[in-house]
C-alpha cells in the first residue's frame, strides 16, 4: 500500500466563502488584517466562524467587515460580553483603501470577503473587489465546471 504524501506547507485557511465565487466575478484581491478581541481569536482557532453573508463597508476612509459571525466558545470568560455579529475593523494600507473606494464608486463593484487565514500568529482576511453575476452567468459557470469534469472522466477512460 502506498502512503499518501503529506504536504510540507500546512493549510492555514480558517474559513473560505464558497458562495462568493458562485455569486461574483472576483477581479482583484487584497490582504487585510483584522482588529479582533481575545475570545474571537480563540474561536477562530476552533474554526467557529461563518462568512456566508459577510461584506465590506467603506466609510470615512476606513474598511469594516459586516455580517461575519464568530461564535464564542462555551469556555469564554463570564465577565466578557461576547457579541458574535459585531462590526470588525479591517486594517489596510491607504493606497489599497483608495483603490477600493474608487473602484466601488465608479465601476459598480462591491467588496466581499473570500477567506480568513492565519499568517504566522495573525489572522488575515482576503478582501476581493468583485462584480455581481447574473443568473445566466451562474448557469454558464456551472456548465463549464460540469464539462471540465466530464472531460477528465473521458480522458481517464481513454488512458485505461
Automatic annotation (TrEMBL):
Compartmental location: Cytoplasm
Pfam families attached to this UniProt entry: SmpB
Keyword Cytoplasm: yes
Keywords of the record: Cytoplasm, RNA-binding
Listed GO biological process terms: trans-translation; trans-translation-dependent protein tagging
Gene Ontology cellular-component annotations: cytosol
Domain of life: Bacteria
Listed InterPro entries: SmpB (IPR023620), SsrA-bd_prot (IPR000037), SsrA-bd_prot_CS (IPR020081)
GO molecular function: RNA binding
Described purpose of this protein according to its UniProt entry: Required for rescue of stalled ribosomes mediated by trans-translation. Binds to transfer-messenger RNA (tmRNA), required for stable association of tmRNA with ribosomes. tmRNA and SmpB together mimic tRNA shape, replacing the anticodon stem-loop with SmpB. tmRNA is encoded by the ssrA gene; the 2 termini fold to resemble tRNA(Ala) and it encodes a 'tag peptide', a short internal open reading frame. During trans-translation Ala-aminoacylated tmRNA acts like a tRNA, entering the A-site of stalled ribosomes, displacing the stalled mRNA.
Protein family (similarity comment): Belongs to the SmpB family.
Name the record gives this protein: SsrA-binding protein
Phylogenetic classification of the source organism: Bacteria, Pseudomonadati, Pseudomonadota, Gammaproteobacteria, Pseudomonadales
Amino acid at each position: 500500500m502506498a502512503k499518501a504524501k503529506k504536504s510540507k506547507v500546512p493549510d492555514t485557511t480558517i474559513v473560505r466563502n464558497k458562495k462568493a465565487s458562485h455569486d461574483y466575478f472576483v477581479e482583484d484581491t487584497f490582504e487585510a488584517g483584522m482588529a479582533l478581541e481575545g475570545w474571537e481569536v480563540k474561536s477562530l482557532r476552533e474554526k467557529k466562524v461563518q462568512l456566508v453573508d459577510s461584506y465590506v463597508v467603506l466609510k470615512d476612509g476606513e474598511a469594516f467587515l459586516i455580517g461575519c459571525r464568530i461564535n464564542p466558545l462555551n469556555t469564554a470568560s463570564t465577565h466578557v460580553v461576547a457579541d458574535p455579529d459585531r462590526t470588525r475593523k479591517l486594517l489596510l494600507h491607504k493606497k489599497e483603501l483608495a483603490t477600493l473606494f474608487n473602484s466601488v464608486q465608479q465601476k459598480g463593484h462591491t467588496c466581499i470577503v473570500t477567506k480568513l487565514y492565519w499568517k504566522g500568529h495573525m489572522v488575515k482576511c482576503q478582501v476581493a473587489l468583485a462584480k455581481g453575476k447574473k443568473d445566466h452567468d451562474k448557469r454558464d459557470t456551472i456548465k463549464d465546471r460540469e464539462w471540465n469534469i466530464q472531460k477528465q472522466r473521458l480522458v481517464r477512460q481513454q488512458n485505461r
